[in-house]
Amino acid sequence: MATPSSHGREGDPPRASRIGLCETCRHQQLVRNTRGSTFSLCRRSREDSTYPRYPRLPVLACPGYEPCGEP
């Protein structure tokens, strides 16, 4: 994922469909690097090594998914 906006380049799918479940998961943390790219960090990876720190997107199924309550 390159930007935190709702749409990328013209013709790209909306951000939520590119990220999948992580978009609405309470364990997601968006991390921005010094070059301006944004990555989706899974905070579950801190306590459980079976979860990837930066999952390959889009995540379509995850046993640790918990909705955050905000879209």
Helix content: under 10%
Mean pLDDT: 83
Number of strands: 2
% residues in beta strands: 5-15%
**Anisotropy-based shape:** globular
Question: How does this structure look, described?
Answer:
- This protein has 71 residues and is mostly beta strands.
- The chain has a domain at 1-6 and 21-61.
- The chain is built from one helix and two strands.
- It has one helix at 15-19, and strands at 28-32, 38-42.
- It has a two-stranded antiparallel ribbon with strand order 1-2.
- A hairpin with a 5-residue loop joins strand 1 (28-32) and strand 2.
- The protein starts with 14 loop residues before the first helix and ends in a 29-residue tail after the last strand.
- Residues 1-7 have low confidence and may be disordered.
Characteristic key phrases:
71 residues; disordered N terminus; single chain; 2 strands; globular; two-stranded antiparallel sheet; 7% helix; mainly beta
Summarize the structure.
With 71 residues, the protein is mostly beta strands.
Strand and helix layout:
Blueprint: H1 15-19, E1 28-32, E2 38-42
Antiparallel strand pairs: 1-2
